[in-house]
């Protein structure tokens, strides 16, 4: 089949919106060994980057047909330790190529044009995330475009079901003011990899539902939590982002065990509604989700406090009719993941982040970044890039 010249230009909502949505429907998203996920952008193809400080979407055309898209965003974030602990980073996401036009160089052309936009805006590093077993994506970015494997974080997913979790009376949970949350994040997570310099804008965004801390009841004698930097011996914190306000998810295919479990749990729940048992939500129609970000803990009992905060968010999500799962992403070597409830069938134990230095002066430091053992580094996942 012969294809025309590939033209790449900026996205124009007036003429491209419907065509981009059609392309999305023809491209599957998600790890094949778990489920196939389809996204519903609810009429806004750039919803996943709209809240970023700087963003751009490019489209590729061949013979006036839209055959590919890519999105990118730019921010300032922590990427390594002092004396130079911040850099301008560009995030690549949403690369789609029409199934009938693959293996024609369209993907690499789109990435190249987005990298040129990054370079024009003085970006130091470009990075992207993909499934570890997505051979086509790894081959494109690592083998062909010079990206380097950087981190393998874990995506942890827990279904929102009833009954609600019981919260121990011995644990105090407090919602922080934005100013308190910003202070604590900058103090305790400012040196974490990819911590965003504009954390205040994230916390003030209408999609951020709030920040909560948990600590043993009675350990905070007086004053507000974190005032003057004072905190209990054991404590934990996290924030919640309502991703379902941006786009929806839907499972297109699922393993047989998942299908059988879903059907059986609903039948039993329908026959015996008074039984307080696990009931799998309906994942086969578009659903929203909450994203937990900024998970941090301190002290010998902090693991239990993280677990309690996660249960608190689950209970909060159960009051949102549209929310069917609670999701978080943490560093692959971060022990905090042991204290986050999740369902293995829906989770991804090893996502893959790849990174590339766009300036010659940063290539030596990139070597230092990529050789750092995962177990020694936490990772801040920006909710605007989910």
TrEMBL record:
<protein>
    <recommendedName>
        <fullName>N-acetyltransferase domain-containing protein</fullName>
    </recommendedName>
</protein>
<dbReference type="InterPro" id="IPR000182">
    <property type="entry name" value="GNAT_dom"/>
</dbReference>
<dbReference type="InterPro" id="IPR016181">
    <property type="entry name" value="Acyl_CoA_acyltransferase"/>
</dbReference>
<dbReference type="InterPro" id="IPR052810">
    <property type="entry name" value="Plant_NAT"/>
</dbReference>
<dbReference type="Pfam" id="PF00583">
    <property type="entry name" value="Acetyltransf_1"/>
</dbReference>
<feature type="domain" description="N-acetyltransferase">
    <location>
        <begin position="6"/>
        <end position="161"/>
    </location>
</feature>
